[in-house]
Write a structure and sequence with these properties.
By secondary structure, the protein is of the alpha+beta class. It folds into three domains: 156 residues, Up-down Bundle (Four Helix Bundle (Hemerythrin (Met), subunit A)); 155 residues, Roll (Ubiquitin-like (UB roll)); 393 residues, 2-Layer Sandwich (Creatine Kinase, Chain A, domain 2), CATH 3.30.590.10. Helices cover 49% and strands 13% of the residues. It contains 26 helices and 20 strands. Strands 10, 11, 12, 13, 14, 15, 16, 19 and 20 form a nine-stranded mixed sheet that branches. Strand 19 and strand 20 form a beta hairpin. It is globular and about 95 Å long. Bound molecules: adenosine-5'-diphosphate and magnesium ion. Magnesium ion (MG) binds next to loops.
Length: 765
């Protein structure tokens, strides 16, 4: 989300460019018709880079994939053997990286980067602002020659690679600063490849880093994620050893992120202060044609958009991001991009980068990429489906049913552990995806509900129920689809059915956490999920050990463990319609946490008992949890304040003047009409118009006075509650009145680009 009012000095490199361009556009004259004409005038002729061989033929992706990155495989190639092995020891055993090794790595990196035309480097990190931050330094240093004249040389040392010290006081710490020093440090994360970002502003080498305070307290989103992976690995290994996998040493978390987004012509955005200030439309009547024809999802991609996608993907491939699928989403002008899954840490970095590349390349194409969860009311919102699984060091997916009885038993045991994790920590999982943007999406009848539950599919449900009843399992033919057509071979069924209404669904060999918002940083929900699963593994290890005391045949003990666990956690499983009112009633009966708004969900972070597992797994300390609670509230209040200010401004300087123009037009028309019947009809229309005009004015005054009262309160917790209970309903009322005005005011008087124009222009270009 692009927020102009953001106070951070260190804006993202990529976002910075987009802001400058937008501000330039905004100062143009406002003209809705001109914006529409520009939008449909088609593809601005953009030169798209093509990577070709000597004969001008396009090279296959594999030949340039990752060419702008420097990770472990490049290091193996470019580093002296000794230095590389020393780095591996650091990674595997957590040993301190010797200075000579660091210097050798830095030298190799510098040589590679300078050969690519890079002049600057930066420590790239993910503070709790939700975006990324970077501070640039040139690769140069001054050398004094013996004639004492100054000479500039390229230099980059091991210590510059490993550690940075940005001014932490500009980043949120959630009150930790009052008790600790304001100093903040960035430290190189060697598990995620370094990468080069290139734009008109030049080329910069980005070093992925963690960001923390003087006493080691996490000031970013990445540190807790890395801690959670470690905790989960330890806990899972212990459990798996009990199952008989005695040689397992390490567990990996895998993540594949499906990213949804909207693309709108930039000319429209420049004329919608709500879009470029808050990332979503605060006003706008629903377009007659929306998504009801269901012709957009998987439909053919408009040529202008395909052009954009190719350009964005080229850049993503160069950054080593394995983009695999692209398609239209449900709403007009909504799309999705998804990579092949990777290690969770790399996948989250890659998702953050993907969002930045989408934004930047969109601007180049005269488009604007909206990553907000609900940019347009009444049309489908955007999510970020987090496909998550765990694998052992042999690369076996632990959530994949196998071909041997042991693998299948292990699969069901690990599945039970994950079910228990979600069952025990549903409230904190809900809190991990609580943002103002996601409030518009969750439970809004087109995205998963705000109630966390698990969908397994009928076959797995059947299997678990059979185990619960203590019956034996029989293999079935249910996995084969016979089409009754001889020419087409029988295909095996993906035996999980789909349920789009579930927030946490099993999809054959992984779980899909679908309730994550499109603009979120995945590391937040993934750290909480990993911590929950880690805590569950720990509890399950103890339980299994206990069962093994009386049941000495291991497989029988494991089956008994599965039986007990799935029975105890049954309330979290739900395979019906998550959008229905019956489910809300049923979930209440089952005692599941129902946390409808961010305000409700965040209070969970104050509950020591609920968050204890984060402390036990060492993913977040009690103090870090409290700081995150405060940061989230502050962000909530700031976001909503910004939306409210923008809504007031839009009403005052766009909607009311349009209504005034319309009033004058009515007067003029009235005077020029002489026919009685016409006069009567006209008077009726004018009456209706005046009712709407009055509605807008009253709702505006009401909302304004409520905002003014609310701003006098300086307690953020109280303000958050007041925003939900008082301000949001008043804002909603004002919006409704303005949207009624939009359809009654003459098209030519309405200054803001309309939904139909913004959403359907891509079809015309
Ligand atoms: P869907 O069926 O939900 O439309 P896909 O089958 O294309 O989507 O997969 C969605 C995402 O799940 C992809 O990013 C894919 O790489 C990822 N995925 C597949 N297997 C795993 C796994 N074992 N762990 C994590 N993610 C996975
Ligand atoms: Mg999916």
């Amino acid at each position: 989300m692009v927020v102009l009012a953001r106070g951070n000095k260190q804006l993202s490199l990529l976002e910075g460019t987009s802001l400058q361009r937008l501000v330039k556009e905004v100062t143009m004259s406002f003209d809705r018709t001109a914006a529409f004409k520009a939008a449909i005038s088609g593809n601005p002729k953009i030169k798209i880079e093509k990577i070709t061989d000597d004969h001008g033929r396009e090279k296959p992706i594999s030949e340039y994939f990752g060419c702008m990155t420097f990770g472990l495989s490049q290091m193996r190639e470019k580093l002296p053997k000794e230095a590389y092995n020393s780095l591996l020891r650091t990674l595997e055993q957590g040993k301190k990286l010797p200075k000579e090794t660091a210097d050798a790595i830095a030298l190799a990196i510098k040589e590679w980067a300078v050969s690519k035309g890079v002049t600057h480097f930066c420590h790239w990190f993910q503070p709790m602002t939700g975006s990324t931050a970077e501070k640039h330094d040139a690769f140069i240093t001054i050398q004094h020659s013996h004639h004492s004249e100054l000479k500039v040389v390229e230099r980059f040392t091991g210590s510059q690679l490993i550690q940075g010290e940005p001014d932490a006081s500009s980043f949120p710490s959630g009150g930790m600063r009052s008790t600790f020093e304001a100093r903040g440090y960035t430290a190189w994360d060697p598990t995620s490849p370094l990468f080069i970002v290139e734009d008109e502003g030049g080329k910069t080498l980005c070093i992925p880093t963690v960001f923390f305070g003087y006493h080691g307290q996490a000031l970013d989103n990445k540190t807790p994620l890395l801690r959670s992976v470690e905790s989960l690995s330890d806990a899972a290994c212990e459990f798996l050893k009990l199952l008989g996998d005695v040689d397992v040493k390490k567990i990996f978390c895998t993540l594949g992120v499906e990213q949804e987004y909207f693309l709108i012509d930039r000319n429209f955005v420049a004329q919608r202060p709500d879009l470029y200030m808050t990332g979503r439309t605060l006003l706008g009547a629903i377009s007659a044609r929306g998504q009801q024809l269901e012709d957009h999802y998987f439909g053919s991609i408009p040529s202008r958009i395909k052009h954009f996608m190719q350009d964005a993907e080229l850049e993503l491939y160069k950054l080593g991001i394995p983009i695999k699928t692209r398609h239209n989403e449900v709403a007009p002008s909504q799309f999705e991009v998804a990579p092949i899954f990777e290690d969770v840490n790399i996948a989250t970095d890659h998702n953050v980068l993907t969002m930045e590349v989408l934004r930047r390349v969109a601007l180049k194409h005269g488009l604007f990429c909206l990553l907000h969860e609900k940019p347009f009311a009444g049309v489908n919102g955007s999510g970020k489906h987090n496909n998550w699984s765990i694998a052992n060091d042999k690369g076996e997916n632990l959530l994949e049913p196998g071909s041997t009885p042991h693998q299948n038993l292990r699969f069901l045991a690990v599945l039970s552990v994950v079910i228990k994790a979600v069952h025990d920590h549903a409230d904190v999982l809900r809190a991990s995806i609580a943002t103002p943007g996601n409030d518009h999406r969750l439970g809004a009848n087109e995205a998963p509900p705000a109630i966390i539950s698990i969908f397994l599919g009928s076959l797995l449900e059947q299997i678990l129920n059979t185990i619960e009843e203590g019956k034996t399992l029989k293999a079935t033919d249910a996995q084969i689809i016979d089409l009754g057509v001889n020419k087409i071979p029988n295909i095996s069924r993906d035996y999980t059915d789909r349920n789009r209404t579930s927030p946490f669904a099993f999809t054959g060999n992984k779980f899909e956490f679908r309730a994550v918002g499109s603009s979120a940083n995945s590391s937040v929900p993934m750290a909480v999920l990993n911590a929950a699963v880690s805590a569950s593994f720990k509890a399950c290890t103890a339980k299994l050990k206990e069962i093994m005391k009386s049941k000495t045949v291991r497989d029988e003990a494991v089956l008994e463990f599965i039986r007990q666990t799935v029975t105890e956690t049954k309330v979290i499983r739900f395979d019906g319609n998550g959008y229905s009112d019956e489910w809300k009633a049923e979930a209440k009966k089952r005692g599941l946490p129902i946390l409808n708004t961010t305000a409700d969900a965040l209070t969970v972070l104050k509950d020591k008992k609920a968050t204890q597992f984060l402390v036990d797994t060492k993913v977040l300390s009690a103090e870090e949890i409290q700081s995150r609670y405060h940061i989230n509230i502050e962000r909530y209040v700031k976001t909503l304040d910004l939306e409210h200010d923008t809504l007031l401004e839009l009403t005052l300087s766009y909607v009311l003047p349009a209504l005034e123009k319309q009033a004058v037009a009515f007067e003029k028309a009235q005077r020029s009409i002489s026919l009685d019947t016409l006069k009567k009809i006209h008077a009726e229309r004018k009456d209706e118009f005046e009712i709407v005009f009055a509605e807008v004015l009253t709702a505006f005054e009401e909302f304004k006075s409520k905002v003014n009262i609310s701003r006098k309160n300086h307690n953020e917790e109280a303000r958050m509650k007041e925003i939900v209970t008082t301000l949001q309903p008043a804002a909603e009322k004002l919006r409704k009145a303005c949207d009624r005005a939009e359809v009654i005011v003459a098209n030519e008087f309405w200054p803001l680009p309309k939904y139909r124009e913004m959403l359907l222009a891509n079809l015309l270009s």
